[in-house]
Design brief:
By secondary structure, the chain is of the alpha+beta class. About 55% of the residues lie in helices and about 20% in strands. About 35% of the residues are buried.
């Protein structure tokens, strides 16, 4: 049997031995801390990745990645739109009209943003059509006076499919008596729920031709909503596209992007994910030092055996391997237990029962009223490997202490 097998066999024997007292307690603590550390890291990373994914899929794919706006309504917009459709950096573009409005039902009135869209081209820049919970997105055809509302706005106004609402918008054309609002009735033909209160409560969609008539824009629009291949490139790509299309118009245009509205929220989630992960990783670090404490106490209990091993010809390197193997086995067992525990709790958090419980607690306070879960096995693999490597590193010290046992001194005191 090779020397490596002897060290591994002794490590197995120490692992299976029934220790008592403080050594037994510290040994149990070492297993427990590793398992808890790995489990919490898996749970936290899955939840934080889930929040990041939900923010991307729901919010950042509903709002435009960027917008090209006219300082005044854009008249020659069709030439610009044709250029945007063929631009190599743009994967979707849609004209829009936007205005503040008051929307009223029989006994309630609320302020909201009215957005006039072309339903077909809007699908290229937004996935709001995927979040229709009642009615039809296709109902926003050019000839109809139909409107699609957010779920929260519809509930506040006590509206459902088929109800009529009144839109009140400012009229820029003054009459002899002054300024009066324009009022027009629309049919509610769709209700959407994105999960963000400021969208579900503050946005309503109508056809762009209807919006143009309401605001007396004739054949003009307010701007274009744009989608890029990577939303994180929107900050500089929006300005690049703006400079490219300025050659096709004499009007003054400006560029905006999603970082102005949801950038701080996304950065906060990313920073929180990093900081929480770092703090939770300290649990694994504590577990590693518990393993060091357990190994040091085990060395003190097994000094006589180690002295005998040395007198029988075992080298310092072979003695060190015993405790490196022992630490690695404790870390591996604790990591596997933590993996099972972490995945079990993570799947529990994503269950329907727990989702309803969290939803009842939050009561729509936050833009996501449940725990979004995104289990990334690359992250789990990294957590497990990092835990084992960290444990092996800290085990080098007790292994070195064990290899320095002097047989003559130990056996003299026995």
């Amino acid at each position: 049997m090779g020397t490596k097998d002897i060290s591994l066999s002794i490590a197995f024997e120490y692992l299976r031995s029934k220790t008592k007292g403080a050594t037994s307690f510290v040994s149990s603590l070492a297993y427990t801390c590793v398992a808890i550390g790995v489990a919490v890291l898996i749970i936290v990373s899955s939840v934080m990745n889930g929040f990041e994914k939900e923010l991307r899929d729901r919010i950042l794919n509903v709002i435009p990645h960027a917008s090209i706006l006219g300082v005044s309504p854009v008249s020659d917009w069709k030439d610009i739109y044709s250029e945007l459709e063929t631009h190599p950096k743009v994967i979707g573009a849609a004209p829009f009209i936007q205005s503040q409005m008051l929307i009223g039902s029989s006994d309630q009135v609320y302020g909201s943003n009215l957005i006039g869209i072309d339903p077909d081209s809007e699908k290229d820049v937004s996935v709001v059509s995927d979040f229709i919970i009642k009615g039809s997105y296709e109902s926003l055809n050019e000839a109809s006076s139909n409107i699609i509302l957010g779920d929260l706005l519809a509930r506040k106004l006590d509206l459902d499919i088929g109800n009529r609402v009144s839109l009140m918008l400012p009229d820029n054309n003054a009459s002899f008596s002054g300024y009066f609002p324009k009022i027009k009735n629309f049919n509610v033909t769709g209700i959407f729920r994105v999960g963000a209160p400021d969208i579900d409560e503050g946005v309503a969609y109508i056809n762009i031709s209807q919006a143009s008539k309401l605001l007396s824009l004739e054949d003009r629009i307010h701007g274009f909503r744009i989608k890029f291949d990577d939303l994180f490139d929107a900050n500089f790509l929006s300005w690049e596209v703006l400079m490219d299309i300025e050659d096709f118009t004499t009007q003054i245009l400006i560029a905006e992007n999603w970082t102005l509205t949801y950038g701080p929220l996304f950065e906060a989630i990313m920073m929180e994910k990093t900081l929480v992960g770092l703090l939770v990783f300290l649990i694994v670090l504590v577990a590693a030092f518990n393993i060091v404490s357990m190994l040091i106490m085990l060395i003190n209990d097994k000094k006589a055996q180690l002295a005998i091993f040395k007198t029988m010809g075992m080298s310092k390197k072979e003695i060190r391997r015993i405790f490196i193997y022992l630490g690695a086995m404790i870390s591996f067992i604790g990591s596997i237990v933590g993996l099972i525990l972490g995945l079990a709790i993570t799947f529990l958090l994503s269950s329907k029962i727990f989702e309803e419980f969290i939803n009842s607690l939050m009561q729509g306070t936050y833009f996501i009223s449940y725990f979004p879960i995104d289990i990334r096995f690359s992250w789990i693999f990294f957590i497990l490997i990092s835990t084992i490597i960290l444990t092996l590193i800290v085990c080098l010290y007790p292994a070195r202490v064990a290899s320095r046992v002097i047989p003559a001194e130990v056996l003299r005191n026995e």
